[in-house]
Design a protein that fits this description.
The protein has about 400 residues and is α/β, with parallel strands linked by helices. The protein has 14 helices and 17 strands. About 50% of the residues are buried.
Length: about 400
């Protein structure tokens, strides 16, 4: 994969694909984590004398909804950089081309939401050519979109000299190292709602990890496969057979697959729900498992404390509800305190770290939940492959 070190950018226009798909509230950026993650690449290119045309998607627009405009992002980026960030009147076209070609070294132009163009998600060659015409070089720093073959992540890279930005470079380096040369023991914490969403990464960790700690609603297909009662818990029917196969693989392999030994139950999924603790895992009818219990949290924390490398993706329960956040908080604190390398795979795990004020205490916080999982599964990411 080519990096910024391979590009001579001085006095040249560089199209930079960033991931500014950030939450908005009241017409302003509510969380600028992803914008801050792109700053090292942006600032380096500016120092080296490049003029920058930035391109990103925001949400999933259907008809150029104004509430999904990049205008709030341009304002926040300008505040972080201490300079003006122009917002282009569109994604491609004569006006956009004129604005891009008028840039001086160090200046920035942010294109409108690239998903305003229906050809973006289809890797449309006409759109890719239009984007390529804006610049002389292309840099991809949007790891969170690297698992998609879209016009701004794939097609345009085929039309310009290209390289990976510093964020994308670090993401690939850190995540690949987990599989190729991790400090031992390697402990993977896998939570969330659906086994089927993460069975491929569980299967991969069964081959390379020393222990896998399962939490969240995905533990219930494992329990059902073992013959336990799950009550009204969220239990993905299609996940039971993959869970059964994973249990069998763990029994015959060198990786331990750990399941909760106690649970916290709620009568319903709601902030004011009645709560009870269960010493065991057979959930009675009328109740649903919404968090791992205290004994499980301690066992998992002990595993994490002794790990050389930790990878975490997926909460232990409904951490967004205060009554059911203790398990996820315990794991988050254990990961933050762990002496080894700690990598958190974006998504809800990253949100939990932010909620508990621990985001700056891990080795690497990935900006791409789906992309990080696909990379760990061993799948080829189109946005990375094209940068070779």
């Amino acid at each position: 994969m080519r990096t910024l070190d391979a590009l001579d950018v001085e006095g040249r226009r560089v199209l930079v694909r960033v991931d500014f798909n950030v939450p908005l509230s009241g017409g302003a950026v509510a969380d600028d984590t992803r914008i801050r993650a792109a700053l090292p690449t942006i600032e380096e290119l500016r120092r080296r004398g490049a003029a920058l045309i930035l391109v990103s998607h925001l949400g999933r627009p259907k008809d150029r909804e104004p509430e999904l405009s990049m205008a709030p992002v341009a304002r926040r980026l300008g505040e972080l950089l201490g300079t003006e960030v122009q917002l282009a009147p569109g994604v491609v076209g004569d006006e956009v081309t004129a604005a891009a070609h008028a840039l001086d070294p160090g200046e920035l132009l942010l294109l409108e939401n690239v998903r305003y163009e229906p050809g973006e998600t289809k890797d449309d060659p006409t759109l890719a050519a239009g984007l390529a015409a804006l610049a002389e070089l292309y840099v991809d720093d949007a790891f969170g979109a690297a698992h998609r073959a879209h016009a701004s992540t794939h097609g345009v890279a085929q039309r310009l000299p290209h390289a990976a930005g510093r964020l994308l470079e670090r993401e690939v380096t850190v995540l690949s190292a987990i599989l190729e040369d991790p400090a031992r023991p390697l402990v993977a914490i896998v939570g969330g709602a659906k086994v089927t969403d993460k069975i491929a990464v569980i299967d991969r960790f069964l081959q390379v990890a020393d222990a896998i700690l399962i939490g969240g609603a995905m533990c219930f297909p494992f329990f059902r496969a073992q013959g336990h009662e799950v009550g009204d818990s969220l239990c993905e029917a299609d996940g039971v057979e993959p869970a059964r196969r994973a249990l069998a693989a763990a029994a015959g392999g060198g990786c331990r697959l750990e399941l909760p030994v106690d649970l916290v139950l709620g009568e319903r999924f709601a902030a004011g729900a009645q709560r009870r603790e269960l010493d065991g895992v057979d959930v009675p009818a009328g109740w649903m498992g919404l968090d791992v219990g205290a004994r499980t949290a301690q066992r998992y924390a002990d595993e994490i404390a002794g790990a050389g490398t930790v990878f975490w993706n997926g909460p232990m329960g409904a951490f967004e509800l205060r009554s059911f956040a203790a398990g996820t908080r315990a794991v988050a604190e254990a990961v933050a305190d762990a002496p080894g390398t700690t990598v958190v795979g974006g998504g809800d795990s990253a949100a939990a770290l932010q909620q508990f004020g621990l985001a700056d205490r891990v080795t690497h916080l990935s900006t791409g939940g789906g992309a990080s999982l696909e990379l760990l599964e061993g799948r080829t990411l189109p946005g990375v492959e094209v940068l070779a």
